[in-house]
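Why does residue order matter? Because the sequence determines the fold. Keep that principle in mind as you read this record.
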Amino acid sequence: MTTDEVRDKYLKFFEVRGHKIIPPAPLVLENDPTTLFTSSGMQPLVPYLLGEPHPEGKRVADSQPAIRLQDIDEVGDDKHTTYFEMLGNWSFGDYFKNEQLQWIWDFLTKDLNLPKEKLYVSIFEGDNSVPRDKESYDIWKSIGLSDDHIFEYDVKKNWWSRSGTPSEMPVGEIGGPTSEIFFEFTSVEHDLKSGEQCHPNCDCGRFFEIGNSVFMVYKKTANGLEELPDKNVDFGGGLERLVAAANNESDMFQIDVLKPLVRKIEEITSVDYKSNKKAMQIIADHIRASDALARDNVVPSNKLQGYVMRRLIRRAAVKMRELKSVGALRATPLHQDFEGLTDHKSIIEEVDKFQRTLDKGLREFDKLENVDGKAAFDLYQTYGFPLELTLELAQEKGIKVDVDEFKKAFEEHQEKSRTSSVGVFKGGLADQSIEVTRLHTAHHLLLAALQKVIDKSISQKGSNINAERLRMDFNFGRKLTDKEMKKVEELINQKIDEDLPVTKKVMLRQEAEKLGAQMEFGRKYPDNVNVYFIGDTDSPFSKEFCGGPHISKLSEMHGRVRITKEESAAAGVRRVYAVID
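Structure:
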């Protein structure tokens, strides 16, 4: 069964059941400043799940292309991709669990002809704030599932809200229990690295999650969770995974939309897929994702979506050369390979540009007599050389690399990279220069100054930082005046002149919330959080949840903060840009 066939079957199934088929949103959402890409089918529909009437009625369905950067490190395990399509159907206060679970079961077992014995489901087991989802359990039993095909999991697996678990939800946030469906590939043996017992949420590859029904039942109030008068349904199922299940193919890269890419990579590199699966899956996925971005008019650059696209292309290019051997790095131009994989001029140009960067790195490597861990990490950070490539080059030269020292430098880099302001770049894709670090601290100063000068109720709604400037989105109903922006600037620069200290404290999330530390709306935070204080920790100018990194005192800013632009980002949301001169 092909991808087009599965998509068509799904949309027709729900159209017959009264759903309006809506067009997909673009990969880059113009009116959502909090994210780089559409990462799920639900994302463009959040306003309607929150109560705004949908113009097409109470039942809609679609197939939504999406990019999910948090999966980038998982690519290479047969079932993860950064780019995918998400099939979805929604009920805005109309049907609920009975219809949803029966319908999705009928679609899977009748329209896709999936064997019933290979399907497993999960439900929410309940906790001290929300009861067990007995209703879903009873429905699955009535459909005919036995207890050994129904698994119960906690809030980490079977609860959904934009903020995470019930305890993490802010007042006003909606959420509810979920019921997932899994397909079992009986030909895949359980890997004990994933635990002694295999189960649907095991990571060994025997089970694929192929769909998730979210039941929006609750709203968070000051007194806890209370039930909503109108209950919503949000279903999402990965199209590529459903196609894999329909063909009983445990390797998603063997379905019709991915297999031709894999075969072309085999042809170009003259190596076997089965012996090089991880590298080939990374190349195929990243080129497919870059192709989708190019079709959405994204071009490789050093900013925002273009920066992600650049890193995807360059990662694919390095993996391609690893397959062809190190010697190929010095021989044929990279772009010759990628002309066989894509027609997009912007991708070919980026690969060609990366070739020049690699050439510089190779010349730099040739100058080295010894490769300590720091030198290996500098090659990685500056020229995009993965450790494996440096090791092969070193072997050619007859020298050793201090791998332990490299890993230490890499881990330190990762720790510095855990920053909320650039956290939209998952998987090590963000710039972490000293310029970004200074602008990150300036970002905290800007939010505090806006609250003190303009309105204390202002909160951050989105952000982006690169080496040239910072951008912040915040809730406010009108344009800032020139006088107001000047006052904000003056207050920030006054604090820089005072050379306030910047201090990090690790605290329990609940303790930090009681202190009034600022947090980004909709972001999930762990039980233990970093809180950065600017000024005296007892009466700071600014205190925020944050992963860092930051400068240690404001004199390290080495300049003055200047607001360069202020504009509307969305209804009730303003956007401001600032630089350090």
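Residues 257-367 form one domain.
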